[in-house]
Amino acid sequence: MLNDGLSHSSHSLSFKPRYMTRMCVVQVRRRALETKRQTRIQEMAERRRQRASEFELRQQEKEKERMEAARAKERDREERLAALNKQQKAHIEELQKKIQQKVNIECLSCACSKFIDCGWFFVFIVLAKIFNIEYLIMQFLLSG
Fold first, then answer.
1. How many angstroms separate the Cα of 33 from the Cα of each of 28, 29, 107, 119?
2. How far is 76 from 70, CA to CA, in rounded Å?
3. Closest by alpha carbon to 114, among 95, 93, 142?
């Protein structure tokens, strides 16, 4: 029986270390799995941050391109408006010149008719060529 007790006693002693060893192995394995899981979580979080950063950069680049396109469109619009204003101003100046020429022709016609009535037409033509024609017409009209 002593052998039996010893063997039983040794069996129970050998059982505890094996059980403890299994518990340690399980704990070590759990820790390793937890470490792996934490590593994966950190890697996923890093990938998520990286994707978010890349997305933000793309959004900023798109916004920059959109703003540049808007500035170019505004420049084109300003250039078109400036060209249109220049064209309108030139047209107005040309109309004013035509009006002035018509007024000058009417004044000349009026003055010529008065000179013709007075018999001074040829004198008027010579004087108009020698001097400033508008000045002569105005002087003649004011005096007449």
1. 9, 6, 109, 126
2. 10
3. 142
> Beta strands of 77-140 (E only): which ranges?
none
Domain count, the chain: 1
Structural domain boundaries enclosing 88 = 2-143
Give the pair of three-digit tokens for residue 1: 């029986």
pLDDT digits 0-9 by tens, 16-60: 666 668 778 888 899 999 999 999 999 999 999 999 999 999 999
Yes or no: say if 120 and 111 are a contact pair by the CB < 8 Å rule. no
Q: Which two tokens stand for residue 2?
A: 């002593």
For residue 26, report the phi and psi dihedrals to the nearest 5 degrees.
Answer: -65, -45
Tokens read off for 29: 């394995």
How is residue 131 annotated by DSSP?
S
pTM summary value:
0.44
Q: What pLDDT, on a 0 to 100 scale, did the predictor assign at position 133?
A: 63
Mean pLDDT of the chain: 78
Q: Which residue has the higher pLDDT, 25 or 79?
A: 79
Q: Residue 112 contacts by C-beta under 8 Å, 6 or more apart in sequence?
A: 121, 124
